[in-house]
Amino acid sequence: MGNYFPEGYQTQNLSRGGLDFYPEVLLEAYNSGHQVAHHTSAHLRLSNTTSEALQKDTAMLKKTFNSLLGTSPTYFRAPYVGHQISQEHASVLAALGIQNIIGWSVSTEDWKEARAQLHV
Amino acid sequence: MRQCVGMPRREFEWLVVAALLLGLLPYLEVECRQLRRIWRHRVEEYSQPRLPRPVEVIDLDPSFGDEGFDVVTSMKGNDALQFLRTHVKIFVVVMEARVEQMKKQFRERHEINPWSTLVEEDFILLPAVHPEVPPSDLVDIVNTILVTANIHPVTSTNYNLKLPFKKRDCYAHISHAYALQRYIEETFEGKEFLVVLEDDVILHNSFESRLAAIVQLLMQPTTRIHRVPQPQSSETSPLPTTHSIDCVSLGYAFDSKVVNLAREVRYDPKGTGLRLAPQVTPPPQRSPRPGQEHKLRNTENYIFLPWGAMGYLITREWAWKSLKWFGMDIDDCLKGSNVAPSPERRLFYPCQRHLVIPPIVLEDSVRFGSLMGHNVSYLSSSRLFAKDVSERADFYIPIAELKKPTRFFSRCVVPGVLALTFDDGPTEFTSYILQMLKIVQAKATFFTGTRLFINYPMAQMPFFV
User: Does one domain contain both B385 and B420?
Assistant: First the structure.
């Protein structure tokens, strides 16, 4: 069976992201002095995620970081919500060595454009 | 009952026996399953090629500065032997005078230490100084190193090897180094094979440069000591010569790799704030005066693990043995109380060469740090004994960092400053972003995951941030 994609989506260039696909780019970014940080492995929506799932997910990502860079970042941004995460989740992250949780003050809202492109 | 069924006696007896066997069947099956598992294990064990012994290429600790070897020789008795045993597995003997010195000292210490196997006969000199080894063998050895390390073939001109390793490939290349070790051991069978890596030769504490240093040592038999000029820029030598180390694990090359990893974790060369190294006063540079008794610097920052504990998994029995040697109670250690071994015995580990430790994982409840009498920060011992090195790196989160409160940022701390962040990467566009950032000379933060699909069907993922 597999995933069903409607007709329009098949022609759409479905872009992929993440360390599984572009590990070299991450290395390039890291080596050129940029900061890399956690964004959860599978782009979890934290309001629907248990702390165990978050722990598992972030540990996996951390392992990936370790194998790529030798280190693992201490910065984290929660998908969708930025810095607004529960204390439970924060403690889970702290146990993994992530103490800095970053939100945003200005968003370009480029995801809206992505959606607009899709509807074209 | 037999009469009721109308069955002859003999058949009924057989029936009873069959019923008993049927009742025992589950137990028998369990037994069979265990036997089968053991058998399969054996078959796998024998069908696989023999695990090459790990190579131990450890320089004398860089925090000792230039006088690494002198530190060893100024130590006394068991300490010196133990230091050599645990810190230095292979020596490249580069100076004949030092060989004689070492032999003399070891002969003296042999009486002190009854289980010592490092006696005079165990020494073998590398081709660099050994007159009997023909130069062809030397070439073979070097070629093996290079072939196993996936380096282009060497001519006499390119001595100064820059190994084309990336950090992520290092783990793979360590296994090549195992093959090298195996080769060396087969060549010098039954002999203790020693390689001294002088501090002069070490560029910095990366595995690649160590390998390059060995190659350089082997390639130059006439100039016994090759002094590599210290690189000037901070990029080529990312690690400072003196810095505090969280942990020193003794044993295999894996361990040294992990230690290096821990060092790098604490060091923040790019200033990106990935990890802030705590302010530690650097230890003094010079060696202790001749009369002065040598002490390991920053002893509280070190953890000494027994041989092979990190490289391979440690058996319960082995842990128990070492605990017994330390005069500690295993129950205390299991409870997690801090039991310190006596200071004379702290540096010593009853190690045996080439001991293959079967992979038995200790329980999570065994707190290995307190087991050795040191305060160690770690998450769980399963991480410590993980097969994957990158998993084991999780071990090195300092307690101070764990205790730090979580900080939440929603705006820049410095006023008038913009922080660029790129989420959901890296994607195919990230390299272009990097080029653009390079042009404007700005640094950004990339928030990354492992598997992300952008423009995924909208019903499943309404929007990304």
Answer: no
B400: which residues sit within 8 A by CB, 6+ positions away? B278, B377
Contact A115 B463 (CB under 8 A): yes
Q: Which fold has domain A17-119?
A: TIM Barrel (3.20.20)
In a domain, B176, yes or no: yes
Which residues of chain A have a CB within 8 Å of the CB of B430? Answer: 22, 25-26, 29
The helix or strand, by DSSP H or E, that contains position B22, with its residue range, turns out to be helix B9-47
In a domain, B278, yes or no: no
> Do B209 and B236 touch, CB atoms closer than 8 A?
no
Look at residues B334, B354, B439, B342 and name the one whose alpha carbon lies nearest to residue B50: B354
Q: Is B317 helix (H, G, I), strand (E, B) or coil?
A: helix
Q: Under DSSP, is residue B199 helix (H, G, I), strand (E, B) or coil?
A: coil
Q: Is residue B432 part of a domain?
A: yes
Q: In chain A, which residues have their Cβ closer than 8 Å to the Cβ of B448?
A: 18-19, 26, 36-39, 61
Q: How many CB pairs under 8 A join A and B?
A: 234
- The C-alpha of B316 sits at a distance from chain A's nearest C-alpha, in angstroms, of 27
What is the torsion angle, in degrees rounded to the nearest 10, for the CA atoms of residue B136, residue B140, residue B142 and residue B143? 130
> Is the bond leading into B426 cis (omega within 30 degrees of zero)?
yes
Q: How far is CA B439 from CA B5, B147, B174, B443, in A?
A: 98, 40, 37, 11
Of B409, B448, B450, the CB nearest to A83: B409
Q: Are residues B250 and B392 in the same domain?
A: no
Residues in CB range of B418: below 8 A, 6 or more apart = B412
* pLDDT digit string, tens, across residues B41-54: 656 655 555 443 33
B397-445 pLDDT, tens digit per residue, is 444 444 566 777 777 777 777 778 888 778 777 888 888 788 877 888 8
Q: In terms of pTM, does the model score above 0.80?
A: no
How many independent structural domains does chain B possess?
4
DSSP 8-state assignment for residue B315: P
Comparing alpha-carbon positions, the chain B residue that sits nearest to A79 is B465
- The reply to whether residue B424 touches residue A25, judged by beta carbons under 8 angstroms, is no
Q: How far is A105 from chain B (nearest CA, A)?
A: 6
- Domain span at residue B216 reads 62-266
Closest CA to B94 of B224, B221, B226, B201: B224
Q: φ and ψ at B195, to 5 degrees?
A: -130, 120
Pair B36, B92 in one domain: no
